[in-house]
Amino acid sequence: MLDFQTPTTSESASYDPNRRLTGGRRVLVVEDEDDIQELLNFNLTREGYDVECVGSGEEAIRVLKARRFDAIVLDLMLPGIDGYEVCRRVKADPASRNAKVIMLTAKGEEVDIVNGLGTGADDYVSKPFSVRVLIARLKSHLRPVVSTEADEQVVRARDLVLESGRMEARVGEERVPLTLTEFRILMLLAQNPGWVFSRYQIVDSICGPDHVVTERSVDVQIVNIRRKLGEHARYVETVRGVGYRFISDERE
Ligand code: CA
């Protein structure tokens, strides 16, 4: 049976979604204005990202040669080498070209945006920007647990096997016919056995900022996942008043 209680704050068995979902992702902030640099450093660190800040294009190039980053928040107007040139170099170097570049452009300057995307930037945010929007963009580019990266990711939990590349779920030899959303939810839970996820956390981590799945419809997805898992439905457990978790051990 599903329970439709709203999540409570007493999520003792829960976890810190920010740290868990973004931790270890390295973000380079290239911004010459101290207050903006500080604002980004504070907020991205709080989100669980591993943040490094530099104030010029030259420093950015130097740091990028020494270390790998998952994403770069790149101001366009920098002293010396500007954001366009940094972006060009990032995207031309095989060592750094997989880093997602989010450019900070001047307000309403369409030419900046067009030029920025032309140099290979993955996204842009116009100044003055909302930190929440920037973080949402960053998250959508660094999809945490179930990404669309080409790298095959295989998760084994109990006798369940989930393969991200083929979007395939199997129990033993038998294929479980999940939809994409169902697959992503099950992947999220199975990758973190024992962790309790609230409906909100599930929506947030599988959909990013462009939500197509509502918190309530998570319940429907879970019903379908359980139905398709058949006798293994008990793997996905409802935690009353909190959300769902994948049972990590044999307790029955
Ligand atoms: Ca600037």
Topology record:
Layout: H1 17-22, E1 26-30, H2 34-46, E2 50-54, H3 57-66, E3 71-75, H4 83-92, E4 100-105, H5 110-118, E5 123-126, H6 131-141, E6 154-157, E7 160-163, E8 168-171, E9 174-176, H7 180-191, E10 197-198, H8 199-207, H9 215-229, E11 236-239, E12 243-246
Parallel strand pairs: 1-2, 1-3, 3-4, 4-5
Antiparallel strand pairs: 6-7, 7-8, 8-9, 10-12, 11-12
Bound molecules: calcium ion.
Walk me through the structure:
The protein has 252 residues and is an alpha/beta fold. It folds into two domains: 134 residues, Response regulator (Rossmann fold, 3-Layer(aba) Sandwich), CATH 3.40.50.2300; 93 residues, Orthogonal Bundle (Arc Repressor Mutant, subunit A). The protein contains nine helices and twelve strands. The strands form three sheets. Strands 2-1-3-4-5 form a five-stranded parallel sheet, sandwiched between helices. A hairpin with a 2-residue loop joins strand 6 and strand 7. The longest helix is centred in the C-terminal third of the chain and has 15 residues. The protein binds calcium ion (CA). Calcium ion binds next to loops.
